[in-house]
Amino acid sequence: MKISADTVRHVAKLARLAVSEEEAARLAPQLSDIIGYADELQAVDLADVPPTSHPFALVNVLREDEPRPSLPRERALANAPDTDGEQVRVPAVLEG
Amino acid sequence: MAVHTVKQIMESLRRRESKPSEWAEASLARIRALDERIGAFLHVDEAGALEAARRLDGETPNHPLFGIPYALKDNLCTEGIPTTAASRILEGYVPPYSATVADKLRQAGGVLVGKTNLDEFAMGSSTENSAYKKTRNPYNPACVPGGSSGGSAAAVAAGMVPYALGSDTGGSIRQPASFCGVVGLKPTYGRVSRYGLIAFASSLDQIGPFTRTAEDAAYVLQAISGHDPLDSTSAPEPVDDFVSGLDRGVKGLRIGVVRDLSQEGLDPEVGRLVEAAIATLEGAGAEVVEVSLPHMHYAVATYYLIAPAEASSNLARYDGVRYGKRVSGDSLIDMYERTRSEGFGIEVKRRIMIGTYALSSGYYDAYYLRAQKMRTLIREDYQKAFETCDVIATPTAPTPAFRLGEKVDDPLQMYLNDIYTIPANLAGLPGISVPCGLTEAGLPVGLQLVGRAFDEKTLLAAAHAYEQLRGFEMPLPGVEQ
């Protein structure tokens, strides 16, 4: 599969990455190489093979949802780039 | 300055011949003397290490790792100590909690001296993808230490610490151990809690030790293993006594060897050293049997779809909101994009994009789903192989350490260096790399043994037996010249 600079820009947008023209031009052949290498999987008949998402078959275990001590607010906020002292602050999400 | 094993320090402390603070000082002195040239550490906590060690000076050793200095790969969270995953996006991040492994080692009386360099977010095979510094191979400073846990491997190889922890997603413990002439163990998936390990690919990541000997690896694995309610994927399996079985030898051990590895770009010198190591084990009573892993050839392609897919999801959390770097923008989305574009290095972007592509509408079935199906076949190959053997022996890496800069512009060639280590991650199996000699050029080569799930005991005993049989001590690298 050949990956164009346009595809690189589209995928970057999906991944919330801004790539420059120069980066897109450099990444397109590299991603083509890597995806091209992965294309060898297309030649194998895998129709009846179940997928593996995890090495061992673990099942979900539920526990009671009981309140427990957690990080105090000031420590949870200590690494945030911007806060009002009580919550993290971000640019406006909704217009007007 | 003499270099010591975990076992030697443990015995010295138990005999009251030395104190924890003396070992911490010796470790810090060696880091000061050598690390400017090696570049193994991103952060050295001199004050914290000395304070912790002095507190232990008055206590009685109550754990094998009591009073022994160690280092952690910088993708393991440490409360109050900077943790960056070698990424600009986490520059200045100080975790409010510690990884379970860090807590366990602290409770055992371990003395943390610092955090080691890695490829950014553990994505790489040379440690050259660190946003902060290059790490050099102690055996040849023109060569890489391997990766992604290159800092931990180099720190142990150069004798700066007797042991260090790393993480292994596709070979990131075993390959740098091979390149740096030390022992590296990737435990079974689920053996060690991943709580507090900065996630790369959650179905593959596993934490494990770098040490000078297999026996030391057994002590460290013992201390960090076990189920953890804070990691739902940690296994509720009983933890074996890894140390007690070390001396059982290899008589009757069935070693599986895979034919036709040479087609996977194997360096002939590496091949000869590994064959000689297997012959040594055979000479001591092990039985060599031929096994077939017919889908091993597809492991790299499978891995480089599954790991980036999981990474693209795991790294979505770096958005400049709750922690880490933020670059302001005109809108929330603009802020996300600027933050992530400036915060991530090129390899991380490359992998996020491969993963996003493999998961995106129209390509999911062709790439991600096919890779998951191939993962099933690779697991089944091992199940079948372990019907006739107890461990599988291969080289750890197809080549010795390569030169800095040699593969940075060719990501696919870099990925192919992981051909022998990746299959064990896909199948969740434990693997160990043990040094089996030096090339003509003086670079270390590792023998890899892969075992059944939760059978680290057999791997450690075989590696320990090999160390007794191999007839040489790994020479210390010439870092002091």
From TrEMBL, chain A:
EC number: 6.3.5.-
Keyword hit for Protein biosynthesis: yes
UniProt-recorded Gene Ontology molecular function terms: asparaginyl-tRNA synthase (glutamine-hydrolyzing) activity; ATP binding; glutaminyl-tRNA synthase (glutamine-hydrolyzing) activity; transferase activity
Highest taxon of the lineage: Bacteria
The keyword Transferase belongs to this UniProt entry's keyword annotation: yes
Catalytic activity, as annotated: L-aspartyl-tRNA(Asn) + L-glutamine + ATP + H2O = L-asparaginyl-tRNA(Asn) + L-glutamate + ADP + phosphate + 2 H(+); L-glutamyl-tRNA(Gln) + L-glutamine + ATP + H2O = L-glutaminyl-tRNA(Gln) + L-glutamate + ADP + phosphate + H(+)
TM region(s), chain numbering: none
N-terminal signal peptide: none
GO biological process, one term: regulation of translational fidelity
Top EC class of this enzyme: ligase
Chain's role: Allows the formation of correctly charged Asn-tRNA(Asn) or Gln-tRNA(Gln) through the transamidation of misacylated Asp-tRNA(Asn) or Glu-tRNA(Gln) in organisms which lack either or both of asparaginyl-tRNA or glutaminyl-tRNA synthetases. The reaction takes place in the presence of glutamine and ATP through an activated phospho-Asp-tRNA(Asn) or phospho-Glu-tRNA(Gln).
Subunit structure: Heterotrimer of A, B and C subunits.
UniProt name for this protein: Aspartyl/glutamyl-tRNA(Asn/Gln) amidotransferase subunit C
Automatic annotation (TrEMBL), chain B:
SUPFAM superfamilies recorded: Amidase signature (AS) enzymes
Enzyme Commission no: 6.3.5.7
Domain Amidase: 24-460
Gene Ontology CC: one annotated term: glutamyl-tRNA(Gln) amidotransferase complex
InterPro entries xrefs: Amidase, Amidase_CS, Amidase_dom, AS_sf, GatA
Keywords, ordered alphabetically: ATP-binding, Ligase, Nucleotide-binding, Protein biosynthesis, Transferase
Catalytic activity: L-glutamyl-tRNA(Gln) + L-glutamine + ATP + H2O = L-glutaminyl-tRNA(Gln) + L-glutamate + ADP + phosphate + H(+)
Protein name as catalogued: Glutamyl-tRNA(Gln) amidotransferase subunit A
Organism expressing this protein natively: Alicyclobacillus macrosporangiidus
